[in-house]
Amino acid sequence: MIQSMKDTMQTSLRMPLRTFTVLFLVAVLFSACHRRQGVVISGHLTAAPRQMVYLDRLDVDRGIPVDSMKTGRDGRFRFAVALDEPTYFLLKLSSSNFITLLAEPGEHIRVEADSLFLPAAYRVSGSEGSQLVKELDDHLRVTVRRADSIARIYRRRMNEPGFDTLRPRLDSLYNAVVKAQRRYTIGFILEHLHSPAAVKALYQKIDPNTYVLYDIKDLQYMKIVADTLQKVYPDAKITKALVQDLQKEMARYNELRLQSLMKKAEVVDLDLALPDSTGDTITLSSLWKQGHYVLLTFWASWSQQSVADNLALLKLYRRYHPRGFEVYAVSLDTDRRAWQRQVRFDELPWVNVWDSTGRAAQRYNVQLPPRNFLFSPEGQVVARDIHGRSLQIKLSQLYD
């Protein structure tokens, strides 16, 4: 064997350079093709001979046509698609008659259906992700059927005598169905965290206006799935779309939480205690407790809009500070020296503090500066995100 290997090596060394180059290029092309694997989706739709069947790729929130063909006399079809990451597809006979498939590179997915209505009784093999999706859809279909049944009874009996006695029982039955579906979905997610099928579970709906995961606490499951898929499929579109959606939902949650705190005027939660340039900690509440209106402003030296906002604020501060107006300016700079340098350069005379950890910005749901909040002497937010002319009018109403 060793001699044979030596003979092979010697033969390769005697190859002409052109031959070696051609073989090298072939090897590179083969390697590239191997990396970009495809997926084959074929099947047998016994009730749909000689009918058009369509394949769409789900791209974030819309379907993109990929291919279409007419089934054979026996209802068979076959699609071959280039694929290099987990991808959702819709296999359709029409816009309202389709099934969802979750394909991975290298799979040969086989679909069989005896009914003209595909979701009713199809079978899928060759793809673990597609089987999980079918499990999700089948379970949800049963739940929707039960919920619709209760809703029909509700509508039929609502104008009949004795409905006031029946309604609590119907409400209880409906809520039990919804909660059972939610428990199932959460269990599915936790069991299949490493599969993109968990993403579909996050977005299932009982009806067009009702998500299965309806509780604000369910954001934790979105975060768990996003964190897991970032490790397993960091570059996949499915993962990136989920992470982006999670960021939007978290921002919305923080905004709602902040609005709730403001309505309740919970001063302890809205108060801040941050260090100034000398290291002394100054609380936001210490200013309004002196009976002053206080403008809490978030800014950064790297934000040109923030710097311009500060310069415009200087004029208003000089006019209204003698009457009690105060400014509590929170810097979001990561570089302490850059913050201090900008304060000195622009000669900002108000209270300047530094949010080195980013927690203050997070508490007030500040994504990018500048943002501001005007507090009354009672510690309540009376205005937000007012700059320039709007702030001038507000201060004129308060002091002039």
Please tag this protein with its features:
Immunoglobulin-like; four-stranded mixed beta sheet; 400 residues; single chain; five-stranded mixed beta sheet; 48% helix; 4 domains; 13 helices; alpha+beta
Describe this structure in words.
With 400 residues, the protein is of the alpha+beta class. It has four domains: 2-35; 38-126, Transthyretin/hydroxyisourate hydrolase domain (Immunoglobulin-like, Sandwich), CATH 2.60.40.180; 133-261, no CATH class; 270-399, Glutaredoxin (3-Layer(aba) Sandwich). It has 13 helices and 17 strands. It has helices spanning 2-13, 17-35, 128-157, 163-191, 197-202, 219-232, 237-264, 267-270, 285-288, 304-320, 336-346, 359-363, 388-399, and strands spanning 38-45, 52-59, 62-70, 76-82, 87-94, 97-103, 108-113, 122-125, 205-207, 210-211, 273-275, 281-283, 294-299, 326-331, 351-354, 371-375, 381-384. It has a five-stranded mixed sheet. Strands 4-1-7-8 form a four-stranded mixed sheet, covered by helices on one side. β7 and β8 (122-125) form a beta hairpin. The protein is elongated, with a radius of gyration of 31 Å. Residues 1-35 have low confidence and may be disordered.
